[in-house]
Amino acid sequence: xxxxxxxxxxxxxxxxxxxxxxLLSLFTIKPYRISGNGNLGLLFIPPFFIFLxxxxxxxxxxxxxxRMNRFIxxxxxxxxxxxxxxxxxxxxxxxxxxxxxxxxPDSKVYRFGWLNQYTNDMWFNGYVWLMVFSVFVIVxxxxxxxxxxxx
Length: 151
Known about the structure:
The chain is mostly helical. It has one domain (3-149). The chain has helices at 3-26, 45-65, 71-98, 120-123, 126-149. The mean pLDDT is 87. Keywords: Membrane, Transmembrane, Transmembrane helix. This is ABC transporter permease.
């Protein structure tokens, strides 16, 4: 498989996982609304994982063939830190908007599980995707540098 083919498949899987994130977010009930239809967002979690694994696989294949420099893992670390901070703020704001967490009797999600129709996009969103992808880019980079030094 050529480098361009790998890169094309990587872009396709990134777009598909982004579409799954958008659909999951679309079917997550906003805190100011009342849900009565169950958790439709659960339908998009398995495709999200499949597309994420595909993107990570092709990312690994692309990194194997590309010229490496120190800019790539540093950028991935920076993206990880920024995405982690944004995810923390997102979760904190969502819990506040819901009136507390699942153990608070005044909360909209009282006695629900951690994954429910109000919190789907707390666990599966672009920030989490960026953090997972960044960690894997760093791991793939370290693995490749270690592998090249030991040849």
